[in-house]
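#help-structures
NK: newbie question, is this the right format to request a structure? protein is YdeI/OmpD-associated family protein
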Amino acid sequence: MDKLEKIASYFNEEHHYQTGIEALRTIALSTPVEETYKWQFPTYTINSKNIFAICKFKSHFGIWFFNGVFLNDPFNVLENAQEGKTKAMRHWKFKAIEDIDKKLVLAYIKEAIENQKQGKVLVASKKKAKQLEIPLLLAEALSKDEKAKTAFGKLSTYKQNEYCEYIHTAKQEKTKINRLEKSITLIKQGIGLNDKYKNC
């Protein structure tokens, strides 16, 4: 089934909010958006950038604005998609077709389109790389063994972290020393702690 068929199926499916989503679609298609199908919902884009989607559920139907955080929302109709997790997306929920104010919905859609054209998009912030914390035992061993120190420096940060975690999580001192000895042997060979398992 191609996208056009999926869109048709979505709107033609018998559902208690069928007339509601059809009304929203009529408003959507009166604007210059392109209609496509993503994440199992009719989605509306400008220059292939997601603006909003029309959704239907058991207890409501409505519009998802992908960057709704930038909408002025003077009537306070928008909800955070998932409080505490979702930063950009906002939902406008309806319970009945009578709840739809066509002029107001159109105004919100037009503002969302304009925001996209102006580049008002919330970019996910990159997580800071976890700072490498080398256990004291490993740090001392590396400082005394130049070959191991050089080899450790050539490993990826991920592999370095594996060794640090491996030694650090040992509860008993004897276990820490055993893990350290094993680690130094592998480090000198220039291989990661779990490389042998990854190649299986």
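mod (FA): yep, format's fine, and the tokens are attached above. The beta strands are 34-38, 41-46, 49-56, 61-65, 78-80, 90-94.
NK: thank you!
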